């Protein structure tokens, strides 16, 4: 399930506003004449940077436990070719293309025999598109989700909570349904595709300690990574089969991973200590939609203190600092800025965390822009463009480019600023969707530039 943790791109000067008539004319002209939507065309094939012993431990923790903590007694997967069909109405053009790209990657990178069938035809995986309001009326905190042993929304509603849809009772996967909203941005639909199809095929758990995976509820990675593809390739290796208990899978993993990832070495699985439940509750309270702002700020601070108390210097500490910074936007700029700086520092030391560092960088670039430090803002943006492009995060990319455009305008590079701004809008159409959302983001960033001149 892709959760609704609030990892929105926000700014340190989030309370800034634009005086009437200052920049709105330019914004309206651009938003009413948006360039064509940009789309990513090819994904780089990457390899995880951890040892196979660590990856084996991650595989077992992902594959034999649910997000709730319940134990899965055996490995379950599809046996034989996998088919997927799309129902619930005509798939948007962007979704159709993104699904085809994902399936091609799964065939090539994960070695899974998976193909589409005609809309509405019986399939191993049914992807049903439904309105966001209907989905969240039943599962309020989900952006999208996957369910076993059903092939339609109607069937899921009828069997929800019964033995048929209990993952712990599953031995072999024969049919799975994925439910995702069709009235959100193209990027949000694509993100759901990647995470939910990965869980329909393989592990249904998430681990906060993973920094290079969609199997992490922090929601930073939005497309399947090299680590994820390796996990899925191992999941469908001929040495494994549905119904195998954890001990048997653990005994076979070292040779499987040595064959699939020879650069990762060999050895028995090594396990990281489990993440304390108190920290999970604190971070999910901080980044969730429940509770008052004060309660969530206190939860973020509690998460930071718990992470430091555990001696962590990993993604969990950095995520705690990010949450603390995000929740102090518009409340205490000093705490917010310091938290983002510390989080970026942690992420920069962790191999494979360049995307997370970029999410901190957008905050720091925005702060530099609002302070009139245009060259600093440009430098920060430039340092993060490559990993954001590689991660195919159009929303983050467009925001960075909008900041750069405003910074270029501040230093008098007007023509370059206009070209960068147009580029940002093409990505914004994919990342944010509606013209209203694109316009709101442009106005927010224009307000930061105006604030520097106030």
Report on the structure:
This protein has helices at 24-31, 52-63, 93-109, 132-138, 153-159, 186-201, 226-235, 246-260, 277-287, 293-309, 315-327, 333-349, 354-370, 374-391, 394-410, 414-431, 435-453; strands at 2-3, 82-87, 114-116, 125-130, 142-148, 176-181. Mean pLDDT is 90; it is low at 12-28. It contains 17 helices and six strands. It folds into two domains: 2-40 and 274-453, Serine Threonine Protein Phosphatase 5, Tetratricopeptide repeat (Alpha Horseshoe), CATH 1.25.40; 52-264, 3-Layer(aba) Sandwich (Collagenase (Catalytic Domain)). The chain has 454 residues and is of the alpha/beta class. The protein is globular, with a radius of gyration of 22 Å. A six-stranded mixed beta sheet has the order 1-5-6-4-2-3, with helices on both faces.
Brief overview, please?
53% of the residues lie in helices and 7% in strands.
């Amino acid at each position: 399930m892709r959760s609704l943790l609030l990892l929105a791109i926000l700014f340190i000067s989030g309370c800034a506003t634009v005086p009437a008539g200052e920049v709105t004319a330019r914004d309206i002209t651009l938003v009413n004449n948006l360039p064509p939507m940009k789309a990513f065309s090819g994904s780089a094939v990457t390899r995880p940077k951890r040892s196979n012993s660590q990856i084996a431990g991650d595989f077992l923790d992902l594959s034999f436990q649910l997000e709730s903590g319940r134990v899965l007694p055996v490995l379950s997967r599809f046996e034989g070719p996998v088919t997927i069909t799309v129902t619930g109405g005509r798939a948007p053009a962007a979704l159709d293309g993104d699904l085809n790209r994902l399936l091609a990657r799964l065939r090539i990178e994960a070695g899974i025999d998976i193909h589409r069938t005609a809309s509405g035809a019986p399939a191993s995986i049914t992807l049903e598109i439904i309105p966001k309001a209907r989905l969240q009326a039943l599962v309020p905190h989900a952006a999208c989700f996957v369910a076993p042993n059903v092939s339609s929304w109607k069937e899921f509603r009828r069997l929800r909570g019964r033995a048929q849809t209990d993952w712990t009772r599953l031995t072999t996967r024969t049919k799975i349904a994925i439910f995702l909203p069709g009235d959100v941005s193209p990027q949000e639909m694509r993100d759901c595709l990647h995470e939910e199809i990965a869980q329909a095929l393989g592990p249904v758990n998430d681990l906060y300690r993973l920094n290079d995976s969609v199997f992490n509820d922090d929601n930073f990675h939005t497309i399947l990574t090299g680590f994820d593809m390796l996990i899925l390739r191992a999941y469908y290796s001929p040495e494994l089969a549905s119904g195998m208990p954890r001990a048997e899978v653990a005994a076979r993993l070292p040779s499987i991973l040595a064959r699939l990832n020879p650069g990762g070495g060999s050895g028995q699985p090594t396990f990281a200590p489990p993440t304390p439940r108190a920290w999970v509750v604190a971070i999910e309270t901080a980044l969730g939609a429940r509770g008052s702002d004060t309660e969530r700020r206190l939860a973020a601070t509690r998460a930071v203190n718990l992470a430091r108390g555990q001696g962590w210097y990993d993604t969990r500490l950095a995520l705690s600092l990010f949450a603390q910074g995000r929740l102090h936007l518009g409340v205490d700029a000093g705490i917010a800025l310091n938290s983002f700086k510390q989080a970026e520092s942690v992420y920069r030391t962790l191999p494979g965390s360049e995307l997370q560092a970029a999410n901190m960088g957008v905050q720091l670039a925005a702060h530099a822009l609002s302070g009139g430090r245009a060259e600093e803002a440009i430098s920060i943006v430039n340092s993060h463009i490559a990993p954001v492009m590689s991660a195919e995060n159009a929303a983050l990319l467009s925001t960075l480019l909008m900041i750069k455009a405003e910074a270029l305008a501040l230093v008098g590079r007007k023509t370059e600023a206009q070209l960068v701004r147009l580029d940002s809008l093409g990505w914004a159409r994919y990342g944010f969707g509606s013209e209203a959302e694109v316009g709101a983001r442009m106005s927010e960033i224009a307000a930061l530039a105006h604030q520097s001149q106030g």
